[in-house]
Amino acid sequence: MIIVKNLKRYYGTGATIVKALNGVTFEINKGEIVAIMGASGSGKTTLLRILALLDDATEGEYTIQGLEVSSLPESERSYYRLTKVGYVFQDYALINEMSAAENVYVLSMMEGKSKKDSYDIALEALDKVGLKDKHARVPDELSGGEKQRVAIARAIAKKPDILFADEPCANLDTTNSRQVLEVFKELNEKYGQTIVMVTHEQWHTKYVDRVITLKDGNIISDEMERK
Ligand SMILES: Nc1ncnc2c1ncn2[C@@H]1O[C@H](COP(=O)(O)OP(=O)(O)O)[C@@H](O)[C@H]1O
Ligand SMILES: [Mg+2]
Predict the structure, then answer these.
(1) How far is the CA of 117 from the centre of ligand 2 (A)?
(2) Measured between alpha carbons, how far is 216 from 21 in angstroms, rounded to an integer?
(3) For residues 79 and 158, what is the distance between their CA atoms, to the nearest angstrom?
(4) What is the pLDDT of residue 107?
(5) What's the pLDDT tens digit per position in 98-149?
(6) CA-based diameter of the chain, in Å?
(7) Domain boundaries, given as residue ranges, for the chain
């Protein structure tokens, strides 16, 4: 599903160059749930942002669902970004003045779908994360874990090929983290959602199939989790 070949991302030039990704090569299969681990600064966010087309690589190729996205023109990149990938941020990135459902359906509305269709899509996505009954609440009326689950609902509303999540539990306590991880696991098991999640908590790895570890922009291990 994802094939990444010799991916590099350098920031800056000359003496101050930072080699955030130093040539990484790997594949992710459809239906896998994968954790990307590694110390702070090892290149995890850089990798995720490139794969989600939020940033460009300096060198290397990557193919998603047979499409070589690394060389797509910008017009197709934005279409791809909006429809094929979902992205969950550490800080939820919800709009405070909007209900959970509105936060989820804002993207469908932007696409020109009717309010009714957008609402139905939002409720279906909220149902998948166990929050259908809280669709009318604004973010302030939700726990941290619930806020992150609304952000996940927004990311999966388009039924993306791949869901990326960058430290989705970084601001959550253990109970809320567990709820979020269980939602990922269920999306993966029930709907076959492919998920790539960055984390630095070892206990999170029991929710995934495979762990890829980065160090200084290189992959230092890539192992299946024993269940
Ligand atoms: N926009 C940027 N400009 C310059 N250096 C950056 C930028 N973003 C990240 N870096 C550097 O690239 C390296 C990898 O960063 P990052 O991918 O954020 O790591 P991680 O997510 O694993 O903590 C770090 O050394 C970081 O300082
Ligand atoms: Mg990071």
Answers:
(1) 35
(2) 7
(3) 12
(4) 81
(5) 999 999 998 877 778 888 999 999 999 999 999 999 999 999 999 999 999 9
(6) 56
(7) 31-56+88-224
Counting ligand 1 atoms within 8 A of each CB, the residue from 19, 45, 55, 197 with the most, and so the one to mutate, is 45
Stretch 57-63: mean pLDDT: 95
User: What's the topology of domain 31-56+88-224?
Assistant: Rossmann fold (3.40.50)
Which helix (H) or strand (E) covers residue 127, if one does? Answer: helix 115-128
pLDDT in tens, 175-190: 999 999 999 999 999 9
- Cα dist. 188→97, 162, 217 in Å? 31, 10, 28
| 8 A C-beta contact, residue 180 and residue 149 | yes
What is the average pLDDT score of the chain? Answer: 94
Which residues contact ligand 1 via a Cβ below 6 A?
11, 18, 20, 38, 40-46
pLDDT of residue 227: 66
Quick check: 200 and 37 in contact, CB under 8 A?
yes
The C-alpha atoms of residue 206 and residue 155 are separated, in whole angstroms, by: 23
What are the two backbone dihedrals, phi and then psi, of residue 53, each rounded to the nearest 5 degrees?
65, 30
Give me the percent of the chain exceeding a pLDDT of 90: 83
Q: Which ligand has the shortest distance to the CA of 20? A: 1
Of 108, 224, 84, 94, the residue nearest 161 (C-alpha)? 84
Integer Cα distance of 79 and 183 in angstroms: 27
